[in-house]
Each structure stands twice: as C-alpha cells, then as structure tokens.
User: Fold this.
Amino acid sequence: MAPPAEGWKRADDADVLKACVAGDEEAWAELVARYGRLVVSIPRRYGLGREACEDIFQEVFAILVRQLAGIRRRTGLPKWFITTTHRVCRQWFQQAKQGKHDNHALGDESAMISGREPPPDLLVQWDRQHLVGQALRRLGGRCEQLLIALYTDQGGDGYEEVAAKLEMPAGSIGPGRARCLRKLMEIIESMEAAE
Amino acid sequence: MKQQNVTFKHLVAYASGELTGRDASMVEVYLAVLPEAARQARHLQEVIQTLRTDDRVTPTAEAVRRALGLLHVPDAEPGPDWLAPVRVLARLVFDSRSTIALAGYRGSADGYQLAFETDDARVDLQILPRAGEDLDAWRIRGQVTLHDDARLGAVSLMQEPRGTVVASIEPDCLGRFKIDSTSGVYDLRIELDEGTRSIVAPRLQVGPE
Assistant:
C-alpha cells in the first residue's frame, strides 16, 4: 500500500494499521509516534518507575506486532492500547506482589491497577487526551505551536511571552488563537465522526 | 460587547475563562438563546480543559528506538522474564477414542473428540479426516468456552520441539474455530487478554498414533 502523498500523519488508524501489516516501517513509526505518549503515560499514572514504564511500553508494541494480522476491527485502537497497557501493568503488579521487582512499593495505585479493566474515569480521560493530542498533531505548524504555548503545561504563557517565543506581534495572538482553535475543532469533529 | 456582536473569538475567550462581569453575562445570555452556539462553547471548554490538564509524558528516544525495531522481530524474541505470558496447561478430561461412543456422536469412524479443561475455560475439539483429500489431511474443529470475562484471542497450532506456529486463527464470537493440518503431535495454544495469558492443550495427537 503506497503511503499518502502527505505521509502517514493524517491517515486514519485503519490505513496506518493496514500498512503496518504489509511491513511498512514508516507507517509503524507513525503508529509508535501516534500512541507512544498514551502507552507510556498509563504505567506512569499508576506510579511505576521509568524502567518499568519503558518495559511496558516495549511489551505493548510487541503485543501489537504479534497481533497485527489478527486485529480484525481496525478502529478502536485507542481503546485497544489503553486496555492492553492496563493489562500489562496489571501483570507487572502481580509480579511485584510476589516480590519480583526490587524496591518498588505500590500505594494507592494498587487499587487502580489490580482491576481487569482500567478505572472508567481514567479511561475516558486518556481517550480524550489522546484524541485532542492527535488533533493537535494533525493541525501542526504555527497553530500547534501557538496552542501548546497558550494552553499546555509546557507553555501556559501569557500573550507577551508567547508573542516573544513565537516571534509574532502580541496583537495577533488573540485572532490567531481563535483561528487555530476553529481549525482544531474541525479536525476533532471529523475524527469523532470517523470513529 | 453587545449580544448580537458575540463572535467565535468571544466564545474562545469565554471558554478560556477570560471573560468576567458584564462581558461574561452577555455571552451567557447569547448562549442561552442559541443552542448550537452553546454546544460549540461547551465543546471548546472541554477541549481547552483537556489541553490544560494533559499530564501525559513522552517516551524516551531509546524506548522509541527499541519499539521501532519491533516490526520485523521474530515472534520468539524474548523480553524480560516477568513479561512472558502466563501459560496454563489444560487437562485432558475426555477422549472418545478411549470411551464408548455416546448416542448422537457425529463424524466419521476415523474422527474423534477431545475435551480439555482449566479452571477458567473448556476446549472441545473434534478431529476429522478431510474428505476427498489426500490421506494425511485433517481438520480440527474446536470451541473455546470461557468461564470468566477474559478476552479470547488467537488459537494457534504449534509443532514441537521449537514451538513453531503452523496455523493460527481468530475464533468467531462463539469461540469456534477450524484448523487444517497434517497428522502429528502439536500443542494447541489459546491466547487470552491480548496475549498476556494463554491456555495450552499439550501434546494433541492429530491423526492416528
């Protein structure tokens, strides 16, 4: 399957997955980039350390490789990643209870991690974060930079700081923000409609 | 700001929590009479809130590099020990070859039925020669019945001694599957919960001993 002219970044999950089944390494790289933050953030949210988070990250993508040809429903990948990552974390937790991981004490996280499914409120939160994050990636360019600078933890700056950082007039921040948010909302709505 | 002059830019400022007093009230009155604008404002608020509270972390470059290399890694690539799927050996609980045939038994005289059980599942198998084909062609029809809410994955026929997968199939929604093979001794592996667990029916004799 030939990649789209603009690359895999704006392709939907079904097409990227199909290309991965065919062995397309660029499509695979897109899948890792698309879902990497989601996957590594789940064990982190459960309080696991960096090494465990990276082992779990690796295993989830290894599971996906093993099941690539067998994944019939090629939509619903966010839910698949969330559920699979949760279950790998649960496996880690069961091993930790048997003392197989050194120097790691799970506190309140144990209640979240021991269930067969992720806690519903976290599932909704992760799904939402992934959707908006992906829409931002698809938006790209100056708009992505502007919205990150204004709204995220990496930014959250005032108009003056953002204008200086992005080298744009402070007076153009407000209209630029509205224009970029309008585009972001259109992307989100088209992604939601495709689900 | 006048109500009739509320623009998308004002909705953005409102959704971002930047409007106060009279300006905020003006927008709220506007939204109260225009449901579509109200829906748009709610959606904006939700998206902005998601952006502001996104606490996801980023994988390290090394973790990404390792993941990128997975696409062409053989199935047998080992990971950390604790990540090895939990495997449960199933017990053979019924073999029609050593039991008087019950009324209602179907299949050719050369076929036979087997049943395996674990605490979590039962696997019923019917092994039949494939009619009209060469002498060493067999069909395994099976059904996996789970006793808990585990998620059923692929069923694979594996040949010793290397555990080479000779056939793999996704069961249907009722846990039924069909696999064709030649005669021999195999392990039948049933994956559960995205491959984090599996059930193995060991040393399955397909065809005559």
User: Anything to note?
Assistant: Residues 151 and 193 of chain B are 5 Å apart (CA to CA). The longest strand of chain B covers residues 197-206. Chain B has two domains: 3-53, 81-206. Chain B touches chain A through 46 residues (CB under 8 Å).
